[in-house]
Amino acid sequence: MTNLPINVRSAARVGKVLATVSLGVAMLASACAQSFAQGVPVVRDAEIEALVRDYSRPIFNAAGLSKAGIQIVLVNDKSFNAFVAGRRMFINTGALMQAETPNEIIGVIAHEAGHLAGGHQQRLRDQLERAKTMAIIAGLLGAGAIVAGGATDSRGLAGAGIGLATGGSEVARRSLLSYQRGEEMAADRSAITYLDKTGQSGKGMLTTFQRFQSALSLSGARVDPYRVSHPMPQDRISNLQTLIQKSPNYNKADSAALQQRHDMARFKIAAYTQGQAAASRMIAKNPGTLAARYGDAQVTYLYGNPRSAQSKADALIKAQPGNPYFHELRGDILMKAGRPKEAATAYGKAIQLDPAKSGLLPVMQGQALLAIGTPDAVKQAVAQINKGLERDRENISAYRHLAQAQGMLGNVAEAELATAEGYYYSGAYKDAAIFAARAQTRLKPNSPAWMRAQDIINQGKSARR
């Protein structure tokens, strides 16, 4: 798991956040893709990504999104939140941490799928344009009244003009917020439909809204329900509770195997983001379970003795030899202990067992091979990192390792092109173009690598316009 710094919004601030939602906040959605490239704290983890994809697959099928190329992105933020932008669905690690059952997260995914299937993003952009138009017209009418008041020396008329301009902006804002609340309710109803189609309970959705209601109550904030972009949690519960409880799937629980995977993901997130003490307290509430033992091994790896961590990982592998992520953990521990050759073997076993065919695991093996440092191992590292990139083109750190490996082999052009790719996928198009141009001077003209470098250069030129 990649552990990145995060900006945290505590539950105590929920009410304040809701109360201050404005047109400007809504307009941030259009810049979300750029923020993804420049500042969203993304978490990459093969195990958790595979779990969330398994949660989403039946929902996407029910929503007609199975061929839409939806990518789920994990965000390193401990607040309970999820959102969509373009063809990406963002889910906070905090949502996974706080959700005690898979069904709660599946309900979140179903809701966001409702937004995607309903085309809500495009319609929101249309509504934003409409709201801006309403505000502009109101401003022009108000300005006309002010001018008329000045021409006739009528202070009352001029004052009415200011009121008209201000009131028009407020009407536009409230109209947009009302539209957003309607779309949220539509996404809730769509989510219930998808859950029913897939034979799953909507109980997790009710649990989520009850959590929001509790956080809002604890904040002590007074919220005007007409000045927020989402329906109030209690209203959502009232509107959906009867419908959810009538479903024949209402009391259907998640399978024991899925619950175990969910718990292991939660303990891993706790170990990486909550610190040793908090993670240990969470683990202590589930004594003796395989998930708790996994969490304990993660905590020992991060904060304890490598030898003890390896012993715990080996015990986990003995309990579940076919679990690829236990072998991945063993590889992490061996890398930390300075034993890259054994780590490469452990990662190789994880790759062999991985049903999701994650692009992350081959890159991790590539890093271990790089650490071995022999020419043969470095050549294998290049092959493994490229294998990972074939499955996951946007793995920015993989390009850095690939550039290092190519440099160690004396392949300067390939190293510079890999560096350019890393900058490109991070959104730094100008820097990408610089390295692509340098690579081109050493590449065969019109070769596939040379053409790729040209594409990156062209993107850099577009960014400068």
UniProtKB/TrEMBL annotation:
Q: Which cofactor does it need?
A: Zn(2+)
**Claim: Zinc is one of the keywords in the record:** yes
Tell me the keywords, alphabetical order: Hydrolase, Metal-binding, Metalloprotease, Protease, Signal, TPR repeat, Zinc
SUPFAM superfamilies in the record: TPR-like
Domain called Peptidase M48: residue spans: 48-242
Is Endoplasmic reticulum found in the keyword set? no
State the Gene Ontology BP annotations.
proteolysis
**MF term (GO), any:** peptidase activity
**What is an example of a Pfam family matching this protein?**
Peptidase_M48
The TPR repeat ranges on this chain? 324-357
Which InterPro entries does the annotation name? Mito/Outer_Membr_Metalloprot (IPR051156), Peptidase_M48 (IPR001915), TPR-like_helical_dom_sf (IPR011990), TPR_rpt (IPR019734)
- Cleaved signal peptide residues: 1-37
PANTHER family to which the protein is assigned, alphabetical = METALLOENDOPEPTIDASE OMA1, METALLOENDOPEPTIDASE OMA1, MITOCHONDRIAL
Record protein name field = Zn-dependent protease
Native species of this protein? Aquamicrobium ahrensii
